[in-house]
Amino acid sequence: MKQLATQIGQVHNQNIEYQKKTDSHLHHLDTQIGQICTSLSNIESQVTGKLPSQPLPNPNKQVNAVTINRKATKGQPLTPINEHEFAINLSGEMQENRIPLLDAIKAVPKYSKLFNEYFTNSKINESHQVCLTPILLPPPKCEDPGSFSIPCRIGEHIFLQCMLDLGSAVNIMPASFYDECKMGPLKTSNGVLTMADGSNVNTIGLLDNVLIQIRHMFFLVDFVVLDTKHESEILLGRPFLKTARALIDVANEYVILESNGERMQLNIFEEHNFNIEANATDYATYCLAQVGEANLEILLDQMASTLGRKDGTTPGKALTVGQQVLDKGAKLMQSLKPINQISQHVNTFALYSHDMSRQIETHHFVSRINQDFCQCAVYDSDLPSARLIGIEYIISDKIFESLPPDEQKLWHSHIYAIKTGLWINPKVPGMIQNPELQTLAKTYGKFWCTWQVDRGDKLPLGVPSLMMSPQSESTVSTELVKKRDERYQITTQNLISSRADITPSENLISYADHWKQSGKGFAIDVHEAKMKTTAIFP
Questions:
Q1: Could you give the count of Cα atoms lying within 13 Å of 349 in the half-sphere of its Cβ?
Q2: What pLDDT score does 403 carry?
Q3: Per-residue model confidence (pLDDT) at position 404
Q4: Confidence of residue 324 (pLDDT cuts 50, 70, 90)
Q5: What CATH code would you report for 148-279?
Q6: How do the domains of the chain map onto residue ranges?
Q7: Which of 247, 333, 467, 496 could form a disulfide bond with 350, CB atoms 3.0-4.6 angstroms apart?
Protein backbone atom coordinates (compact mmCIF):
# COMPACT_ATOMS: atom_id res chain seq x y z
CA MET A 1 0.00 0.00 0.00
CA LYS A 2 2.78 2.40 0.87
CA GLN A 3 4.45 1.70 -2.47
CA LEU A 4 1.18 2.27 -4.35
CA ALA A 5 0.66 5.61 -2.69
CA THR A 6 4.19 6.64 -3.66
CA GLN A 7 3.57 5.75 -7.31
CA ILE A 8 0.28 7.66 -7.37
CA GLY A 9 2.06 10.74 -5.97
CA GLN A 10 4.71 10.51 -8.66
CA VAL A 11 2.06 10.27 -11.39
CA HIS A 12 0.27 13.30 -9.95
CA ASN A 13 3.48 15.33 -9.93
CA GLN A 14 4.22 14.33 -13.51
CA ASN A 15 0.73 15.47 -14.58
CA ILE A 16 1.22 18.85 -12.94
CA GLU A 17 4.58 19.30 -14.66
CA TYR A 18 3.08 18.30 -18.01
CA GLN A 19 0.23 20.76 -17.54
CA LYS A 20 2.70 23.56 -16.89
CA LYS A 21 4.62 22.73 -20.06
CA THR A 22 1.39 22.58 -22.05
CA ASP A 23 0.29 25.99 -20.76
CA SER A 24 3.67 27.45 -21.66
CA HIS A 25 3.45 26.06 -25.22
CA LEU A 26 -0.10 27.42 -25.67
CA HIS A 27 1.02 30.89 -24.50
CA HIS A 28 3.82 30.86 -27.07
CA LEU A 29 1.35 29.82 -29.79
CA ASP A 30 -1.02 32.70 -28.86
CA THR A 31 1.84 35.16 -29.04
CA GLN A 32 2.95 33.89 -32.46
CA ILE A 33 -0.60 33.93 -33.87
CA GLY A 34 -1.06 37.52 -32.62
CA GLN A 35 2.17 38.57 -34.29
CA ILE A 36 1.09 36.90 -37.54
CA CYS A 37 -2.30 38.74 -37.44
CA THR A 38 -0.56 42.05 -36.75
CA SER A 39 1.81 41.51 -39.67
CA LEU A 40 -1.10 40.68 -41.98
CA SER A 41 -2.95 43.81 -40.81
CA ASN A 42 0.12 45.95 -41.48
CA ILE A 43 0.52 44.47 -44.94
CA GLU A 44 -3.19 45.11 -45.70
CA SER A 45 -2.97 48.70 -44.45
CA GLN A 46 0.00 49.36 -46.71
CA VAL A 47 -1.86 47.96 -49.74
CA THR A 48 -5.22 49.66 -49.14
CA GLY A 49 -3.93 52.87 -47.56
CA LYS A 50 -6.02 52.41 -44.38
CA LEU A 51 -4.84 52.86 -40.83
CA PRO A 52 -3.67 49.62 -39.05
CA SER A 53 -6.16 48.02 -36.68
CA GLN A 54 -3.50 47.62 -33.92
CA PRO A 55 -0.67 49.90 -32.81
CA LEU A 56 2.85 48.90 -33.83
CA PRO A 57 5.00 47.78 -30.88
CA ASN A 58 8.26 49.59 -30.25
CA PRO A 59 11.06 47.12 -31.13
CA ASN A 60 13.21 48.64 -28.43
CA LYS A 61 10.34 48.23 -25.93
CA GLN A 62 11.23 51.60 -24.39
CA VAL A 63 11.39 55.32 -25.29
CA ASN A 64 14.82 56.88 -25.04
CA ALA A 65 13.93 60.28 -26.62
CA VAL A 66 10.99 62.05 -28.26
CA THR A 67 11.69 64.49 -31.10
CA ILE A 68 9.00 67.02 -32.13
CA ASN A 69 8.86 70.00 -34.57
CA ARG A 70 10.31 72.30 -31.91
CA LYS A 71 13.52 70.19 -31.74
CA ALA A 72 13.07 69.49 -28.01
CA THR A 73 14.15 66.17 -26.43
CA LYS A 74 13.44 64.38 -23.18
CA GLY A 75 15.08 66.05 -20.27
CA GLN A 76 15.12 69.49 -21.93
CA PRO A 77 12.70 72.24 -20.86
CA LEU A 78 9.70 72.71 -23.19
CA THR A 79 8.95 76.14 -24.62
CA PRO A 80 5.30 77.29 -25.08
CA ILE A 81 3.64 76.26 -28.36
CA ASN A 82 2.86 79.05 -30.81
CA GLU A 83 -0.43 78.13 -32.51
CA HIS A 84 0.31 80.19 -35.61
CA GLU A 85 3.72 78.52 -36.15
CA PHE A 86 2.18 75.12 -35.39
CA ALA A 87 -0.47 75.64 -38.07
CA ILE A 88 2.09 76.78 -40.64
CA ASN A 89 4.40 73.82 -39.88
CA LEU A 90 1.51 71.43 -40.04
CA SER A 91 0.46 72.93 -43.39
CA GLY A 92 3.98 72.43 -44.72
CA GLU A 93 4.01 68.81 -43.60
CA MET A 94 0.65 68.29 -45.23
CA GLN A 95 1.96 69.78 -48.49
CA GLU A 96 5.00 67.47 -48.39
CA ASN A 97 2.94 64.39 -47.51
CA ARG A 98 -0.33 65.41 -49.14
CA ILE A 99 -1.70 62.10 -50.34
CA PRO A 100 -1.18 59.74 -47.36
CA LEU A 101 -1.89 62.39 -44.71
CA LEU A 102 -5.07 63.67 -46.32
CA ASP A 103 -6.30 60.16 -46.96
CA ALA A 104 -5.73 59.35 -43.32
CA ILE A 105 -7.58 62.45 -42.12
CA LYS A 106 -10.51 61.83 -44.46
CA ALA A 107 -10.77 58.26 -43.22
CA VAL A 108 -11.48 59.52 -39.66
CA PRO A 109 -14.52 61.90 -39.61
CA LYS A 110 -13.64 63.23 -36.17
CA TYR A 111 -10.17 64.33 -37.32
CA SER A 112 -11.58 65.82 -40.53
CA LYS A 113 -14.08 67.92 -38.58
CA LEU A 114 -11.38 69.02 -36.08
CA PHE A 115 -8.96 70.18 -38.76
CA ASN A 116 -11.75 71.84 -40.76
CA GLU A 117 -12.91 73.90 -37.77
CA TYR A 118 -9.35 74.87 -36.84
CA PHE A 119 -8.26 76.10 -40.24
CA THR A 120 -11.60 77.85 -40.80
CA ASN A 121 -11.45 79.84 -37.57
CA SER A 122 -7.66 80.45 -37.43
CA LYS A 123 -5.99 83.39 -39.19
CA ILE A 124 -3.36 81.66 -41.30
CA ASN A 125 -1.01 83.39 -43.69
CA GLU A 126 -2.70 83.57 -47.10
CA SER A 127 0.46 82.32 -48.79
CA HIS A 128 -0.08 78.89 -47.19
CA GLN A 129 -3.10 77.14 -48.63
CA VAL A 130 -4.64 74.19 -46.81
CA CYS A 131 -6.80 71.86 -48.91
CA LEU A 132 -9.32 70.16 -46.65
CA THR A 133 -12.72 68.83 -47.58
CA PRO A 134 -15.34 71.22 -46.06
CA ILE A 135 -18.14 69.85 -43.96
CA LEU A 136 -21.44 70.96 -45.54
CA LEU A 137 -24.17 71.22 -42.96
CA PRO A 138 -27.87 71.76 -43.77
CA PRO A 139 -29.28 75.22 -43.06
CA PRO A 140 -31.10 75.74 -39.79
CA LYS A 141 -34.79 74.92 -39.70
CA CYS A 142 -37.34 77.74 -39.85
CA GLU A 143 -40.88 78.07 -38.60
CA ASP A 144 -43.89 78.98 -40.76
CA PRO A 145 -43.62 82.76 -41.41
CA GLY A 146 -47.36 83.04 -42.05
CA SER A 147 -49.42 84.07 -45.07
CA PHE A 148 -48.15 86.65 -47.55
CA SER A 149 -50.23 89.82 -47.66
CA ILE A 150 -49.95 93.27 -49.18
CA PRO A 151 -52.21 96.34 -49.12
CA CYS A 152 -54.33 97.23 -52.15
CA ARG A 153 -57.14 99.53 -53.09
CA ILE A 154 -60.22 98.97 -55.26
CA GLY A 155 -62.16 102.18 -55.85
CA GLU A 156 -62.61 103.81 -52.47
CA HIS A 157 -62.15 100.55 -50.54
CA ILE A 158 -58.81 99.71 -48.95
CA PHE A 159 -57.63 96.19 -48.10
CA LEU A 160 -54.72 96.15 -45.66
CA GLN A 161 -54.28 92.37 -45.78
CA CYS A 162 -54.70 91.30 -49.38
CA MET A 163 -53.42 87.73 -49.48
CA LEU A 164 -50.99 86.47 -52.11
CA ASP A 165 -51.50 82.77 -52.85
CA LEU A 166 -49.34 80.76 -55.22
CA GLY A 167 -51.65 77.80 -54.65
CA SER A 168 -54.70 79.52 -56.13
CA ALA A 169 -55.39 79.39 -59.86
CA VAL A 170 -57.87 82.33 -59.67
CA ASN A 171 -58.27 85.69 -57.97
CA ILE A 172 -61.08 85.58 -55.40
CA MET A 173 -63.50 88.25 -54.19
CA PRO A 174 -66.21 87.63 -51.54
CA ALA A 175 -69.82 88.29 -52.54
CA SER A 176 -70.23 90.66 -49.58
CA PHE A 177 -67.68 93.07 -51.03
CA TYR A 178 -69.13 92.76 -54.54
CA ASP A 179 -72.65 93.56 -53.29
CA GLU A 180 -71.38 96.53 -51.31
CA CYS A 181 -69.49 98.09 -54.20
CA LYS A 182 -71.99 97.26 -57.00
CA MET A 183 -69.16 96.78 -59.46
CA GLY A 184 -71.22 95.90 -62.53
CA PRO A 185 -72.63 92.78 -64.17
CA LEU A 186 -71.06 89.38 -63.70
CA LYS A 187 -70.32 86.78 -66.30
CA THR A 188 -72.17 83.54 -65.68
CA SER A 189 -70.26 80.91 -63.72
CA ASN A 190 -71.60 77.78 -62.03
CA GLY A 191 -68.31 76.42 -60.76
CA VAL A 192 -67.37 75.10 -57.36
CA LEU A 193 -64.05 75.94 -55.71
CA THR A 194 -62.35 73.72 -53.16
CA MET A 195 -60.82 75.82 -50.40
CA ALA A 196 -57.64 75.11 -48.45
CA ASP A 197 -59.61 73.64 -45.55
CA GLY A 198 -61.29 71.13 -47.89
CA SER A 199 -64.68 72.89 -48.00
CA ASN A 200 -66.49 73.56 -51.28
CA VAL A 201 -67.80 77.05 -52.13
CA ASN A 202 -70.05 77.94 -55.07
CA THR A 203 -69.11 80.75 -57.43
CA ILE A 204 -71.76 83.28 -58.48
CA GLY A 205 -69.93 84.82 -61.42
CA LEU A 206 -66.80 86.27 -62.99
CA LEU A 207 -65.87 89.96 -62.75
CA ASP A 208 -63.52 91.17 -65.48
CA ASN A 209 -61.06 94.07 -65.65
CA VAL A 210 -61.14 95.33 -62.08
CA LEU A 211 -58.54 98.03 -61.55
CA ILE A 212 -56.61 97.54 -58.30
CA GLN A 213 -54.07 100.00 -56.91
CA ILE A 214 -50.99 98.96 -54.94
CA ARG A 215 -49.17 102.09 -53.79
CA HIS A 216 -48.67 104.05 -57.00
CA MET A 217 -49.05 101.10 -59.39
CA PHE A 218 -52.22 99.86 -61.10
CA PHE A 219 -53.12 96.40 -62.36
CA LEU A 220 -56.14 94.96 -64.17
CA VAL A 221 -57.43 91.82 -62.44
CA ASP A 222 -60.21 89.29 -63.17
CA PHE A 223 -62.00 88.05 -60.03
CA VAL A 224 -64.10 84.99 -59.25
CA VAL A 225 -66.91 86.08 -56.90
CA LEU A 226 -67.66 83.49 -54.21
CA ASP A 227 -71.08 82.82 -52.72
CA THR A 228 -70.04 83.31 -49.12
CA LYS A 229 -71.23 85.60 -46.35
CA HIS A 230 -67.98 85.50 -44.41
CA GLU A 231 -66.16 88.78 -44.00
CA SER A 232 -62.95 87.97 -45.81
CA GLU A 233 -60.25 89.86 -47.67
CA ILE A 234 -59.69 89.43 -51.38
CA LEU A 235 -57.17 86.87 -52.55
CA LEU A 236 -54.75 87.37 -55.43
CA GLY A 237 -53.65 84.11 -57.01
CA ARG A 238 -51.24 83.05 -59.72
CA PRO A 239 -52.88 85.12 -62.54
CA PHE A 240 -52.16 88.36 -60.65
CA LEU A 241 -48.69 87.24 -59.59
CA LYS A 242 -47.82 86.59 -63.23
CA THR A 243 -49.36 89.89 -64.38
CA ALA A 244 -47.35 91.80 -61.77
CA ARG A 245 -44.21 89.70 -62.46
CA ALA A 246 -44.02 89.06 -58.70
CA LEU A 247 -40.76 87.92 -57.06
CA ILE A 248 -41.26 86.71 -53.47
CA ASP A 249 -38.27 86.47 -51.09
CA VAL A 250 -39.54 84.65 -48.00
CA ALA A 251 -36.21 84.79 -46.14
CA ASN A 252 -35.93 88.58 -46.44
CA GLU A 253 -39.71 89.02 -46.10
CA TYR A 254 -40.46 91.12 -49.16
CA VAL A 255 -42.14 90.89 -52.57
CA ILE A 256 -41.21 92.78 -55.74
CA LEU A 257 -43.95 93.83 -58.18
CA GLU A 258 -43.28 95.23 -61.67
CA SER A 259 -45.35 97.48 -63.93
CA ASN A 260 -44.19 99.03 -67.21
CA GLY A 261 -40.54 98.30 -66.35
CA GLU A 262 -40.73 99.91 -62.89
CA ARG A 263 -40.21 97.77 -59.78
CA MET A 264 -41.69 98.22 -56.31
CA GLN A 265 -40.69 96.36 -53.11
CA LEU A 266 -43.20 95.59 -50.34
CA ASN A 267 -42.80 93.90 -46.97
CA ILE A 268 -45.14 90.90 -46.86
CA PHE A 269 -45.29 90.18 -43.12
CA GLU A 270 -45.69 93.57 -41.48
CA GLU A 271 -48.75 95.72 -40.94
CA HIS A 272 -49.17 98.44 -43.54
CA ASN A 273 -50.30 102.02 -43.17
CA PHE A 274 -52.05 102.63 -46.47
CA ASN A 275 -51.83 106.14 -47.83
CA ILE A 276 -52.84 106.58 -51.48
CA GLU A 277 -53.95 109.72 -53.22
CA ALA A 278 -57.58 109.33 -54.20
CA ASN A 279 -57.11 110.39 -57.81
CA ALA A 280 -57.27 107.16 -59.81
CA THR A 281 -60.19 105.02 -58.71
CA ASP A 282 -61.47 103.88 -62.10
CA TYR A 283 -59.89 102.88 -65.37
CA ALA A 284 -60.93 105.93 -67.38
CA THR A 285 -59.48 108.34 -64.80
CA TYR A 286 -56.37 106.20 -64.53
CA CYS A 287 -55.83 106.39 -68.29
CA LEU A 288 -56.24 110.16 -68.15
CA ALA A 289 -53.70 110.39 -65.33
CA GLN A 290 -51.14 108.51 -67.43
CA VAL A 291 -51.40 111.03 -70.30
CA GLY A 292 -49.51 113.68 -68.37
CA GLU A 293 -49.87 117.44 -68.39
CA ALA A 294 -47.82 117.86 -71.57
CA ASN A 295 -50.25 115.79 -73.67
CA LEU A 296 -53.45 116.74 -71.89
CA GLU A 297 -54.15 119.81 -74.04
CA ILE A 298 -53.66 117.84 -77.26
CA LEU A 299 -55.95 115.11 -75.98
CA LEU A 300 -58.70 117.58 -75.05
CA ASP A 301 -58.49 119.19 -78.50
CA GLN A 302 -58.89 115.80 -80.17
CA MET A 303 -61.82 114.97 -77.91
CA ALA A 304 -63.50 118.28 -78.63
CA SER A 305 -63.21 117.73 -82.40
CA THR A 306 -64.86 114.33 -82.17
CA LEU A 307 -67.29 114.87 -79.28
CA GLY A 308 -70.64 113.37 -80.15
CA ARG A 309 -69.41 112.51 -83.65
CA LYS A 310 -71.28 109.99 -85.76
CA ASP A 311 -70.36 108.92 -89.25
CA GLY A 312 -73.98 109.29 -90.32
CA THR A 313 -74.41 105.73 -91.52
CA THR A 314 -73.15 103.21 -88.95
CA PRO A 315 -75.77 102.44 -86.27
CA GLY A 316 -74.86 103.24 -82.65
CA LYS A 317 -74.58 106.04 -80.10
CA ALA A 318 -72.05 108.85 -80.39
CA LEU A 319 -68.80 108.50 -78.46
CA THR A 320 -68.99 109.69 -74.85
CA VAL A 321 -66.28 111.68 -73.09
CA GLY A 322 -65.50 108.78 -70.75
CA GLN A 323 -65.11 106.36 -73.65
CA GLN A 324 -62.80 108.75 -75.47
CA VAL A 325 -60.65 109.17 -72.34
CA LEU A 326 -60.42 105.41 -72.00
CA ASP A 327 -59.50 104.90 -75.66
CA LYS A 328 -56.94 107.69 -75.75
CA GLY A 329 -55.35 106.64 -72.48
CA ALA A 330 -55.15 103.01 -73.55
CA LYS A 331 -53.60 104.03 -76.87
CA LEU A 332 -50.86 105.98 -75.10
CA MET A 333 -50.03 103.09 -72.76
CA GLN A 334 -50.26 100.15 -75.17
CA SER A 335 -47.77 99.28 -77.88
CA LEU A 336 -50.22 98.42 -80.74
CA LYS A 337 -47.22 96.90 -82.50
CA PRO A 338 -49.05 95.32 -85.49
CA ILE A 339 -50.76 98.64 -86.28
CA ASN A 340 -47.50 100.53 -85.90
CA GLN A 341 -45.98 98.34 -88.63
CA ILE A 342 -48.19 100.05 -91.24
CA SER A 343 -45.79 102.04 -93.39
CA GLN A 344 -47.70 103.06 -96.54
CA HIS A 345 -51.04 104.49 -97.60
CA VAL A 346 -52.10 103.44 -101.11
CA ASN A 347 -55.12 104.93 -102.85
CA THR A 348 -56.56 103.07 -105.85
CA PHE A 349 -59.79 101.67 -107.31
CA ALA A 350 -61.36 98.21 -107.32
CA LEU A 351 -64.17 96.40 -109.15
CA TYR A 352 -66.36 93.55 -107.94
CA SER A 353 -65.34 90.31 -109.64
CA HIS A 354 -68.94 89.29 -110.31
CA ASP A 355 -70.19 92.80 -111.28
CA MET A 356 -67.85 95.17 -113.16
CA SER A 357 -70.44 97.96 -113.04
CA ARG A 358 -69.76 98.35 -109.30
CA GLN A 359 -66.55 100.31 -108.74
CA ILE A 360 -65.21 101.74 -105.48
CA GLU A 361 -62.33 103.91 -104.33
CA THR A 362 -60.18 102.10 -101.76
CA HIS A 363 -57.51 103.08 -99.25
CA HIS A 364 -54.94 100.38 -98.47
CA PHE A 365 -52.80 100.78 -95.35
CA VAL A 366 -49.83 98.51 -96.03
CA SER A 367 -47.51 96.71 -93.63
CA ARG A 368 -44.61 94.80 -95.14
CA ILE A 369 -43.87 91.35 -93.69
CA ASN A 370 -40.83 90.81 -95.91
CA GLN A 371 -39.57 91.81 -99.34
CA ASP A 372 -42.01 89.44 -101.09
CA PHE A 373 -45.14 89.73 -98.94
CA CYS A 374 -47.36 92.62 -97.78
CA GLN A 375 -50.71 92.74 -96.00
CA CYS A 376 -53.20 95.59 -96.17
CA ALA A 377 -56.13 96.83 -94.12
CA VAL A 378 -58.55 98.35 -96.66
CA TYR A 379 -60.76 101.32 -95.70
CA ASP A 380 -63.35 103.32 -97.61
CA SER A 381 -61.52 106.61 -96.87
CA ASP A 382 -58.54 108.04 -95.01
CA LEU A 383 -60.66 110.00 -92.49
CA PRO A 384 -60.88 109.20 -88.74
CA SER A 385 -64.38 107.83 -89.31
CA ALA A 386 -63.23 105.46 -92.10
CA ARG A 387 -64.78 101.99 -92.16
CA LEU A 388 -62.73 98.83 -92.53
CA ILE A 389 -64.19 97.22 -95.65
CA GLY A 390 -61.75 94.42 -96.43
CA ILE A 391 -58.24 93.01 -96.57
CA GLU A 392 -55.72 92.51 -99.36
CA TYR A 393 -52.60 90.35 -99.55
CA ILE A 394 -49.80 91.32 -101.95
CA ILE A 395 -47.13 88.87 -103.12
CA SER A 396 -44.17 89.08 -105.50
CA ASP A 397 -44.13 87.42 -108.92
CA LYS A 398 -41.69 84.83 -107.55
CA ILE A 399 -44.20 83.61 -104.96
CA PHE A 400 -47.08 83.91 -107.41
CA GLU A 401 -45.42 81.56 -109.90
CA SER A 402 -45.27 78.85 -107.22
CA LEU A 403 -49.06 78.85 -106.71
CA PRO A 404 -51.28 76.21 -108.37
CA PRO A 405 -53.41 77.41 -111.34
CA ASP A 406 -56.73 77.30 -109.46
CA GLU A 407 -55.28 79.56 -106.78
CA GLN A 408 -53.74 81.97 -109.31
CA LYS A 409 -57.19 82.65 -110.78
CA LEU A 410 -58.16 84.46 -107.55
CA TRP A 411 -55.33 87.00 -107.85
CA HIS A 412 -55.04 90.18 -109.93
CA SER A 413 -52.01 92.06 -111.28
CA HIS A 414 -51.11 95.66 -110.37
CA ILE A 415 -49.15 96.77 -113.44
CA TYR A 416 -52.06 98.47 -115.24
CA ALA A 417 -53.29 100.45 -112.19
CA ILE A 418 -49.76 101.69 -111.50
CA LYS A 419 -48.85 102.73 -115.07
CA THR A 420 -52.19 104.53 -115.64
CA GLY A 421 -51.93 106.59 -112.42
CA LEU A 422 -54.87 104.88 -110.71
CA TRP A 423 -52.50 103.68 -107.94
CA ILE A 424 -50.98 106.49 -105.88
CA ASN A 425 -49.26 107.09 -102.54
CA PRO A 426 -50.95 110.33 -101.40
CA LYS A 427 -48.62 113.26 -100.60
CA VAL A 428 -45.48 111.28 -101.46
CA PRO A 429 -43.32 112.94 -104.20
CA GLY A 430 -42.98 111.06 -107.49
CA MET A 431 -39.21 110.73 -107.25
CA ILE A 432 -39.72 108.77 -104.00
CA GLN A 433 -42.77 106.82 -105.24
CA ASN A 434 -41.42 105.54 -108.54
CA PRO A 435 -38.68 103.17 -107.27
CA GLU A 436 -41.24 101.52 -104.99
CA LEU A 437 -43.82 101.43 -107.78
CA GLN A 438 -41.33 99.64 -110.04
CA THR A 439 -41.24 96.83 -107.45
CA LEU A 440 -45.02 96.81 -106.87
CA ALA A 441 -45.67 96.67 -110.63
CA LYS A 442 -44.47 93.04 -110.55
CA THR A 443 -46.73 92.03 -107.67
CA TYR A 444 -50.15 90.36 -107.44
CA GLY A 445 -52.96 90.92 -104.98
CA LYS A 446 -55.96 89.08 -103.56
CA PHE A 447 -58.58 91.48 -102.20
CA TRP A 448 -61.67 90.37 -100.25
CA CYS A 449 -64.33 93.00 -99.57
CA THR A 450 -66.30 92.33 -96.36
CA TRP A 451 -68.41 95.53 -96.23
CA GLN A 452 -70.17 96.63 -99.42
CA VAL A 453 -70.58 100.31 -98.57
CA ASP A 454 -71.24 101.25 -102.21
CA ARG A 455 -74.72 99.68 -102.07
CA GLY A 456 -75.55 101.50 -98.83
CA ASP A 457 -74.91 98.74 -96.29
CA LYS A 458 -74.73 100.27 -92.81
CA LEU A 459 -73.15 97.11 -91.43
CA PRO A 460 -70.94 94.36 -92.90
CA LEU A 461 -73.70 92.19 -94.38
CA GLY A 462 -73.67 89.00 -96.43
CA VAL A 463 -70.67 87.06 -97.65
CA PRO A 464 -67.29 88.52 -98.71
CA SER A 465 -66.77 89.45 -102.35
CA LEU A 466 -63.63 88.90 -104.41
CA MET A 467 -62.38 92.16 -105.92
CA MET A 468 -60.23 92.80 -108.99
CA SER A 469 -57.95 95.60 -110.12
CA PRO A 470 -58.76 97.69 -113.22
CA GLN A 471 -57.26 96.42 -116.49
CA SER A 472 -57.17 97.72 -120.03
CA GLU A 473 -60.40 95.85 -120.82
CA SER A 474 -62.25 97.66 -118.01
CA THR A 475 -62.96 101.33 -117.55
CA VAL A 476 -62.98 103.11 -114.21
CA SER A 477 -65.57 105.83 -113.79
CA THR A 478 -64.00 109.14 -114.81
CA GLU A 479 -66.10 110.83 -112.14
CA LEU A 480 -64.44 108.74 -109.40
CA VAL A 481 -60.97 109.54 -110.72
CA LYS A 482 -61.76 113.26 -111.02
CA LYS A 483 -62.95 113.52 -107.39
CA ARG A 484 -59.84 111.70 -106.21
CA ASP A 485 -57.51 114.03 -108.19
CA GLU A 486 -59.21 117.14 -106.81
CA ARG A 487 -58.98 115.87 -103.22
CA TYR A 488 -55.25 115.18 -103.42
CA GLN A 489 -54.51 117.99 -105.92
CA ILE A 490 -52.91 115.75 -108.54
CA THR A 491 -53.38 115.10 -112.26
CA THR A 492 -53.66 111.52 -113.50
CA GLN A 493 -52.25 112.41 -116.93
CA ASN A 494 -49.07 113.76 -115.33
CA LEU A 495 -48.72 110.56 -113.37
CA ILE A 496 -48.99 108.48 -116.55
CA SER A 497 -46.14 110.44 -118.15
CA SER A 498 -43.89 110.13 -115.11
CA ARG A 499 -44.38 106.34 -114.99
CA ALA A 500 -43.63 105.52 -118.61
CA ASP A 501 -40.40 103.73 -117.69
CA ILE A 502 -42.05 101.30 -115.26
CA THR A 503 -41.98 97.81 -116.79
CA PRO A 504 -44.10 94.74 -116.00
CA SER A 505 -42.88 91.32 -114.93
CA GLU A 506 -41.01 89.40 -117.63
CA ASN A 507 -43.19 86.32 -117.22
CA LEU A 508 -46.75 87.60 -116.92
CA ILE A 509 -48.78 84.57 -115.87
CA SER A 510 -51.99 84.13 -117.87
CA TYR A 511 -53.96 82.70 -114.92
CA ALA A 512 -53.94 86.06 -113.15
CA ASP A 513 -56.89 88.37 -113.96
CA HIS A 514 -58.83 85.25 -114.89
CA TRP A 515 -61.89 87.20 -115.97
CA LYS A 516 -59.94 88.69 -118.93
CA GLN A 517 -59.61 85.24 -120.54
CA SER A 518 -62.87 83.62 -119.48
CA GLY A 519 -65.22 86.57 -119.20
CA LYS A 520 -66.36 85.13 -115.88
CA GLY A 521 -65.87 86.28 -112.32
CA PHE A 522 -66.11 84.61 -108.90
CA ALA A 523 -68.91 84.82 -106.37
CA ILE A 524 -69.35 83.09 -103.01
CA ASP A 525 -72.53 81.12 -102.49
CA VAL A 526 -73.40 80.17 -98.91
CA HIS A 527 -75.26 76.91 -98.35
CA GLU A 528 -76.06 74.86 -95.30
CA ALA A 529 -73.90 71.86 -94.53
CA LYS A 530 -74.09 69.10 -92.00
CA MET A 531 -72.15 70.20 -88.95
CA LYS A 532 -69.69 67.90 -87.25
CA THR A 533 -70.74 67.74 -83.62
CA THR A 534 -67.68 65.91 -82.37
CA ALA A 535 -64.05 66.55 -83.04
CA ILE A 536 -60.75 65.04 -82.02
CA PHE A 537 -58.85 67.54 -79.94
CA PRO A 538 -55.09 67.72 -80.35
A1: 26
A2: 93
A3: 92
A4: confident
A5: 2.40.70.10
A6: 83-121, 148-279, 285-310+317-333, 337-518
A7: 467
